[in-house]
Each structure stands twice: as C-alpha cells, then as structure tokens.
C-alpha cells in the first residue's frame, strides 16, 4: 500500500459516471409516487385478505389478537397463498429472518423446489415442482451452536428453531439475477425454548406492558355508557389493546469505498484506530442540514425507494453534524415492527451504498474528534383507538391519564436507570457516550420547564404558575406560546411547550420520550425491551396503589388518581434534570441524588444481574434467570473480543504500515543530511526533524510491544468478567496510547510515505 493507491482512488472518484436509476412508472407512463409503491413487496394484511379464503383470514386475524393459536389448516392456507404471491414476483427461495445477539440479522435460504414421484406406464418418474407447507412457514431449524448463547448451548448441542413472528409481515427482497427471496420475520429459540435472539424478549416485554397498561386504563376510564364525571374522559369506545410505538432516527457515515478498502482498521473494526483531524472538520458548523452531496442524495433516494417497497416509512433525510455524517428518520410504528424496519433500513443502506461505490459506517465513533452516531429511539404508548397515552393534551395538569403514565416512566427510569445504561453498553458506544453531543452514562430524564412546573405544582398542592406558559388562561397550555418575529411579511411562530435538551439521555419531546443513548449500530430490541419492562414494573406498582386508593369503587376518581400521581411525583424527583448533562456540576449533583454514573461497559453489564434488576425481569417473565446470565456472558465476551480485535489490528498497522513509513522517511532525511554535510552545506533542518521523529518512532515500537504483551496476558483468561475488565482497564488504554503517538507521527512524516488514507481525504471525496 502506498500514497499512489490513495491518489488513484481520489482521482477515480471525480471521473466516475453517475448511477442511472429509473423509478417505477404507472400505466400512464408517469413516475409513481411513493404511496403507490409503498408496501408493494410486503405480504401484509391487505394482500392476505385478498388472497386467503374468508374463514381462514378471519381465523388468522383472531390469532393475531391473541384469540387462538394458529392451526395446521390455517398455516397451510397462508403458506400456499404466500408461495403463489412470491412466485408471481419471481421468488425462488424463502428464509426465516431472525435477530441473533450480535447486532445483525441472520438468514438461511431454502428453495421452493421439491420433488414428487409418480408412476407413468408402470415406471417411476420424478417431477420437480414448487411447494411451501404450513410447517415450513411456521418454523425452521438453523444451527444454534454457531450463534452467541452465553453458554446455554454447546458445540455438540446444535439444534435451534426459528419460529414465524405472525405480527410482522413477510416480505420480498432482491436475490441474484432478477430473482426474489421471501423473508419470514422470526424469533430464534434453543432446543429447550430459551431465547437466543433479540426479538423473543422484545415480544415478551411488549406483551407485559400492554397487559398492565390496559388494566390501568380500565381502572381509570369508565366503561361505555358510564359517567363518573372524570375530567379527561371522552365519550369514546373502550380501549381493547395497547402497544408501544417506536421511531428510530438512524445516524451513519458514508465514505468512498475505494478509500475504505485502503483502511484495514475500518474494514476490520468499523472505526479508525489511527488518524488525526484535518484543519477543517466540523468546527465551522456548516455541515449540519447543509446541502446533501449529489452522490449521497442519489444513494439516499434509492434507499428510500427500496424501503418504500418494503413498507418502511422513511420520512426525513439530512446531513448530520460531522463531515460525511447523515441521518434518516422514519414515521412512528408499533415497536416490534419498527425494530424490524430499522434493521432492514441498515441492511438496505449498506447494500445500496455499494452500488454508488460508497461504504456505510454504522460504528458509533468511526472518526475520533468529530461527532459519533446514535440511534435515537423515540418511544411512546398508544391505544387501538389512536390515542397516545403520553400526549399531555391542552391541560396536562388535569389530564390524569397522561400524568399516570408519565410518572410510571419516571419511576421505571429511576428504579432501573442502571439497567437502561446496560442496554446501550458496548465497546463501540463507550467511545461516544459523554462526548461530542452524546449523552453521558448518567441516565436522567428531561421534561422541560412547563411539565416540571406542572409536576411541582401538583406535588405542592398549589396552582400552576401560569407565567411559565406565557399565557393568562386558566390552565397550562401544552401548545406553548407564539413568537412575534417583528417582520410584517412573516407569520407568528408557534413555539413548542419546551426547548430541546440535546444533552439528555432520556428526554420528553412533546408526546414521546427520546432515548438518545442507544448506539447507532446496535439493534434497538434490547434497549426497548428493558424500557418496556422498567415501565411495566412501575405501572404494576401504580396499579396496586390505585387499587388501595379506590377501595370498593369500580373506577378511580380524580382524587384517587391525584393522590397516587402526587406520591410518584415525589418519589421520582431525583431522576428529573433540566440542565446541562455534560457539566461536571451534574456529575456531582447526580451522585448526591443517588443516580449511578456508569462510564465503562463492563461495569454496566454487571447491572443486568443485579438483584433489583434480575428480580424485575424474571418476575415479569421477560427473561429467565438462565437467559439473563447468558446475556451477561454474551455482552461481556463480545466486548472483550472487540477490544482484542482492535488491539491485534492496530498492532498490524503499527508494524506493517506506520513504522515502515517512519523508517522510509527517516532514511530519506538521513541520506539528505549526509549528502549536505559532504557538500559542507547546512543540514540542521534535516537533523532537527530526525531528532523529532526518532523518539516518536521509538515510542510507537514500545507501544506495539506493549500491545503484544497485553494480548498474550489476555489469552489465558477464561472468566468473562475478568476478561472484560482486563480488556477495558489494560488493553483499551494501550490502544489509545498507541493511537496518540501515531497521530503525532502522521503530522510530521512526509505525505508521500504515509500509506493510509487520511481524514481530510475521506471527508472530502463525496
């Protein structure tokens, strides 16, 4: 690898022809709008309703609502309809698509091809045909021993099962040469029924929170026709189903694929292990919401087209803060489907980027010194009637339904904030949390001044301070206020109820909570599972208190609810914080409040097995104790392996690329100085540069040796906790130490000797 390779790639970027993509057209020859394309590759409820016999479709709908299990006759009918639909779209294979515990998805393709033997003229003849049975639809058998299991499965215990998640529709994705593949979203379990995936526990947690939320709603809302004079109740049908909703803002980087291919650290680790910042990066604050580069915009458009076919509702695209960083945001959906769609989004981004000679980077911190990437999970609770239970309405201080669910979230975060921190912990996210506009390891909640005033007023039994809302009305107005811009041609601006606190890891943003600490490359399943569970546990406590307060009443009164709300406002004050989460003052204040500050992942992983967390998760039935212990070991081992891979990769870079570049440059300087001295000319500049170069090169040699020694010490450590601690406390700092030295060297070695693409080259070739 040499500087010439870098030059060739950069030169090639500007002579590369654009990719030609034709959007689908309708019968009139006009380009279809997104709504006409949306869901065209999805075997959803509408498609099933049109293709299935009415009794079969009715049975399936009943099964979806939990009314009955899926019988063989129904499964066979659905499988046949799905096969016919898939073959009509040129499908050749099907696959059970699942989410193992490694932040990726997995799939094993099986052909629709089958063989049938018949007798013709007394002779046996074999015919080929396409078949797809109900049993093939419902489950498949992948090799469970080859996926992370945390010790639940051994190499010789290979059997595992994927089972169709009936609430997530089947869909088609492109295969090779114009063919298609039928994808069946599935859960992944062991032979003994333990969850080996991310989705099983998410489904369990969703079921738990839905059940208790519905029970509370029926306690505080009268049944149809009843009138208990409740302030917030409307004359509407009674809620029958509650579900959590999710919108995942996905941040990512794009760089030229040619330059990516010249960076062994990016290819192996997903982040640069060496590399100094260029003179210009994000300090001018001109990239955020700036003009999207042409090649990137073309790729984004194709991504959105492919996702529209899959029914993924991408709404927003824009430049993010760091150079080469971007974001895509969807419309909210039911959480289980939103997770599937987020993983599909990442997959499509990755595949489409290749077509544009780009590389999509989902690592939380691929470039040191500029903003990292997150996956902001916008979470709420909704009903089958279309009500958002976290919508404050015009008068939040008298909307007791909203307040009950609000304090439940606060109580869940207060009690299990350390578990939420564990849910976002990873070796890669450690580089992001607490830096460059990413939230710190202290999990607190931001509500905004208006909602804080509402809660304070209720707790203190006084009227709300109306001046906070900027209005003279009787109630606090959730719509916020208006701003007069003093420009006649511009309308008055409607101001939101509260400003945004970008430093908060868990912020209320109008009618939802934004969990901002989630890492960009991780599946949102585990963090949302923990959030669902923590809030469900708090709702169970609130339900018990409501029961006691109600006595013999069938429906809670306003006073009953207000008493319980006031109690939980008081209990949860410590988790509410409205200030700068980055400040040192907050670190000190959080310690006084008893909020844990978990800086490193190995410490966070331990919280999964803490008695107060494990008891809650097992009591709710979201995890078994065995599954929790398994997950702890998987997370700890994954963390350790990632650090080891980084150390080994960096050692190779130092020995095979960095030091040879330094030696070559030193040889040139030495020869130049020798020649100058032989000619009786001044060689002081060369000598001084050599004197500056030599100690850094020597220090890098020592760093490489240190990494080698630490890796040798790591190898015999078997216990997951000890291994993770050693990797965290010994190897990770050594990696950073070597990087700092190498970045110094990069600044003084002549460019023609530096073999790796530099930051300024990767940042400026889109």
Automatic annotation (TrEMBL):
GO biological process: glutamine biosynthetic process
InterPro entries: Gln-synt_C, Gln_synt_N, Gln_synth/guanido_kin_cat_dom, Gln_synth_cat_dom, Gln_synth_gly_rich_site, GS_Type-3, GSIII_N
Residue intervals of the GS beta-grasp domain: 92-193
GS catalytic domain span: 226-658
GO MF terms held by the record: glutamine synthetase activity
Record PANTHER family: GLUTAMINE SYNTHETASE, TYPE-3 GLUTAMINE SYNTHETASE
UniProt family annotation: Belongs to the glutamine synthetase family.
Protein's recorded name: Uncharacterized protein
Name of encoding gene: PARPA_12732.1 scaffold 45468
């Amino acid at each position: 690898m040499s500087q010439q390779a870098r030059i060739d790639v950069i030169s090639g970027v500007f002579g590369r022809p654009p990719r030609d993509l034709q959007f689908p057209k309708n019968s009139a020859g006009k380009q279809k709008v997104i709504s006409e394309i949306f869901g065209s590759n999805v075997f959803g409820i509408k498609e099933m309703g049109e293709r299935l016999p009415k009794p079969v479709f009715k049975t399936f709908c009943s099964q979806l609502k939990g009314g009955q299990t899926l019988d063989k006759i129904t499964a066979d009918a659905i499988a046949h309809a799905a096969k016919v639909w898939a073959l009509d779209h040129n499908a050749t294979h099907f696959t059970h698509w699942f989410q193992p515990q490694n932040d990726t998805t997995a799939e094993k393709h099986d052909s629709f091809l089958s063989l049938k033997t018949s007798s013709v003229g007394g002779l046996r003849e074999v015919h080929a045909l396409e078949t797809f049975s109900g049993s093939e639809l419902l489950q498949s058998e992948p090799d469970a021993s080859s996926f992370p299991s945390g010790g639940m499965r051994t190499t010789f215990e290979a059997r595992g099962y994927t089972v169709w998640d009936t609430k997530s529709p089947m869909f088609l994705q492109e295969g090779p040469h114009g063919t298609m593949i039928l994808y069946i979203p599935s859960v992944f379990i062991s032979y003994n029924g333990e969850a080996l995936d991310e989705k099983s526990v998410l489904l369990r947690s969703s079921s738990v929170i839905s059940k208790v939320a519905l029970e509370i709603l029926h306690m505080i809302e009268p049944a149809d026709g009843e009138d208990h004079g409740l302030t917030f109740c409307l004359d509407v049908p009674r809620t029958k189903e509650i579900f959590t909703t999710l919108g995942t803002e996905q941040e990512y980087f794009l760089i030229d694929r040619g330059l990516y291919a010249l960076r062994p650290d990016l290819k192996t680790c997903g982040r640069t292990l060496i590399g100094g910042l260029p003179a210009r990066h994000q300090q001018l604050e001109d990239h955020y919401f700036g003009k999207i580069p042409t090649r990137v915009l073309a790729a984004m458009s194709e991504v959105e087209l492919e996702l529209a076919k899959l029914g993924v509702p991408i709404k927003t695209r824009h430049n993010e803060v760091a150079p080469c960083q971007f974001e895509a945001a969807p419309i909210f959906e039911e959480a289980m489907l939103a997770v599937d769609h987020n993983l599909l989004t990442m997959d499509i981004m990755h595949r489409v980027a290749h077509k544009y000679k780009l590389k999509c980077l989902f690592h939380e911190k691929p470039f040191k010194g500029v903003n990292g990437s997150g996956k902001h999970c916008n979470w709420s609770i909704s009903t089958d009637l279309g009500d958002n239970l976290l919508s404050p309405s015009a008068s939040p201080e008298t909307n007791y339904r909203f307040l009950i669910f609000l304090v439940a979230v606060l109580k869940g975060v207060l009690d299990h904030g350390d578990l939420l921190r564990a849910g976002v912990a990873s070796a890669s996210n450690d580089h992001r949390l607490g830096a460059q506009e990413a939230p710190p390891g202290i999990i607190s909640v931001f509500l905004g001044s208006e909602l804080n005033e509402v809660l304070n007023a209720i707790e203190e039994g006084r009227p709300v301070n109306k001046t906070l809302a900027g209005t003279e009305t009787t109630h606090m107005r959730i719509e916020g206020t208006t701003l007069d811009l003093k420009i006649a041609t511009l309308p008055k601006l409607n101001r939101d109820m509260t400003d945004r606190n970008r430093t908060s890891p868990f912020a209320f943003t109008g009618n939802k909570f934004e969990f901002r600490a989630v890492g960009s490359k991780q599946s949102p399943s585990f963090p949302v599972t923990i959030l669902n569970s923590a809030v469900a546990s708090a709702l169970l406590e609130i339900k018990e208190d409501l029961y006691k307060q109600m006595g013999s009443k069938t429906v809670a009164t306003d006073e009953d609810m207000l008493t319980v709300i006031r109690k939980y406002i008081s209990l949860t004050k410590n988790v509410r914080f409205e200030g700068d989460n980055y400040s040192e003052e907050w670190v000190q204040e959080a310690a006084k409040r008893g909020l844990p500050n978990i800086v490193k992942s190995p410490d966070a992983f331990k919280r999964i097995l803490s008695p107060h967390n494990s008891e809650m998760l097992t009591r709710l039935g979201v995890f078994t104790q065995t599954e929790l212990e398994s997950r702890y070991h998987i997370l700890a081992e994954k963390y350790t392996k990632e650090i080891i891979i980084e150390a080994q990769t960096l050692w190779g870079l130092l020995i095979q690329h960095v030091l040879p570049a330094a030696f070559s440059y030193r040889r040139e300087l030495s020869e130049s100085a020798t020649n100058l001295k032989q000619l009786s000319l001044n060689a002081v500049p060369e000598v001084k540069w050599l004197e500056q170069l030599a100690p850094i090169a020597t220090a890098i040699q020592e760093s490489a040796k240190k990494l080698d020694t630490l890796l040798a010490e790591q190898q015999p450590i078997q216990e997951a906790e000890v291994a993770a601690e050693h990797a965290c406390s010994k190897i990770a700092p050594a990696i950073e130490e070597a990087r700092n030295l190498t970045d110094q060297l990069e600044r003084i070695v002549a460019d023609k000797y530096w073999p790796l693409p530099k930051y300024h080259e990767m940042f400026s070739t889109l």
